[in-house]
Please model this.
Amino acid sequence: MVTSVFTLLMLPPMFSETNRWSAEIKHTLVSAAWTRLVEPWEPDPGSLACTATVPGSWLVYTIWPLITIALAVLVVRRRDV
Model:
């Protein structure tokens, strides 16, 4: 539970969109994908910030549940109960 809360709520503000490596990590998080999908405008091409793409944001929303399901199956199969 603590890991989930940390990953979803505490981790995103630690990364900015000014550095390329930091922006790439931030764009793989659910909050950045949500922010990009609810923006009604395209980012300014002249801005210095690296912004997430709409298809990339949908990909994030596809991959996160798949990872969660894979981890749940792995944990259930390893249990002795």
